[in-house]
Amino acid sequence: MHIHILGICGTFMGGLAALAREAGHRVTGCDSGVYPPMSDQLRSLGIELIEGFGAEQMALQPDMFVVGNVISRARNSDTSPKFPLMEAILDAGAPYTSGPQWLAEHVLQGRHVLAVAGTHGKTTTTAMLAWILESAGLQPGFLVGGVPLNFGVSARLGQGKTFVIEADEYDTAFFDKRSKFVHYRPRTAVLNNLEFDHADIFDDLAAIERQFHHLVRTVPSTGRLVVNGLEESLTRVVSQGCWSELRTFGASVSDFNAVGEPHDFTVTHQGKPLAHVQWSLGGVHNQLNALAAITAADHVGVTPAQSAQALARFENVKRRMEVRARIPFPPVSSNAAALAETSDAVTIYDDFAHHPTAIRTTVNGLRRRIGSARILAVFEPRSNTMKLGAMKAQLPWSLEEVDLAFCHTGGLGWDAAEALQSMGGKALCAPTIDALAAQVASHVRAGDHILCMSNGGFGGIHQKLAQLLQG
Which of 125, 193, 207, 466 lies most in the core, judged by the most C-beta atoms within 10 Å? Predict the structure, then answer.
């Protein structure tokens, strides 16, 4: 089969493309801004990429057009269609489907699907679960919204019966407004947490809870629902009806719990110790992610002790507290490699956090690890929810544990300085990436930890900061 993917450079659609290619299909695709690293990854798989959404791509005559949710019926200011190819597909009556639907029919059919849903931690928990199953010899397939460092790729078909997938609640396509995860029909479903997000498509938290319950309805009676016992929103979801085995984690009364520090803890089942986890990750959020993965893996026969052994070798996901640089400070011209390991070095991190709760938990995890050293938080409100200003009032709360906060204000329709006013002199704003980087560099001291947070590329600010500090 030849499929042509519209919006191929997105994380999900790029992973789908890799799976389709591995399955032997001919894959081509288009997007705006076809650039590395995704473009390099896809081209290395033999996938032809086309810049833009021109109607001339109809000449490819694929068996199926697979449409990403970046595509819409929107029009430009001159009333011309923003996506001429989609208009041509509709006019011609050509076959098209959504990414999740194609995945369900051509990859997930017949597999034991383990789906990880939640507002936060989906990518990390999905990567943990895939690594646990891999370590247990199950050879799982997976599709992760990031690059797990243990695997080096975001997606693979796998040789075993299991398939682990990051289950996003965002809508499927312009013609299918259901959440993506309702297509996956998991036998094991993780509900990791649930907060209000995606203000561009959901009116309130109740609307998201309704979509989560649609996912619950698809889990068979022989399946397992793995639910965070600390989340009131998930309690409300489950109370709407549950027809599967229910296992909870995280709360004192949950089935699976953790006793100890986030980096060194005992896993208990109904109070009985089962396994011990010692690993490099920090933060209570990662401890909860681990409990979710352990509880899900238990459903396919992997014991908590096996899971704990696997997690000791878990290397996290790219862009999750990833150290991008350690810069000797003040800069020196000799023996820089040795000095970069000293406490005077400035460390630059890259993290995907963008929702206020994710920002707060990421900062807290770093604070627990580094103690009293200074944290300089550098962030951009880039998600649709943040651009709309729906979460702006929570930003000071999310940044309580940082020493200084730097916000990129470009493209916002609200006043970030006003939203951060309660932080006083601890918060600074800049309209461009270059100005922001210069602002950060002017405040750096020896031993600082610079935490860059964005769900996009952030204009290469990590490299800009490294160059400024090295200079």
Answer: 125
> Which tokens belong to 167?
């289950």
pLDDT digits (tens, 9 = 90+) for 22-59: 999 999 999 997 766 677 888 889 999 999 999 999 99
pTM over 0.70: yes
pLDDT digits (tens, 9 = 90+) for 158-207: 999 999 999 999 899 999 999 999 999 999 999 998 987 766 677 788 99
What's the CA gap between 13 and 25, in Å, rounded?
Answer: 15
**Tokens linked to 440:** 């950060």
41 and 148 housed in the same domain: no
Domain limits for position 62: 2-100
Do the domain assignments include residue 292? yes
The structure tokens listed for 284 are 């209570």
- Same-domain pairing of 374 and 432: yes
Euclidean distance between CA atoms 83 and 70, whole angstroms: 10
Strand partners, 256: 249, 269
Residue 268 sits in the same domain as residue 355: no
Q: What total number of domains does the chain contain?
A: 3
| Nearest Cα to Cα of residue 273 among 313, 302, 307, 304 | 304
- Which of 311, 330, 360 terminates a domain? The answer is 311
Question: Which three-class secondary structure state does DSSP give residue 102?
Answer: helix
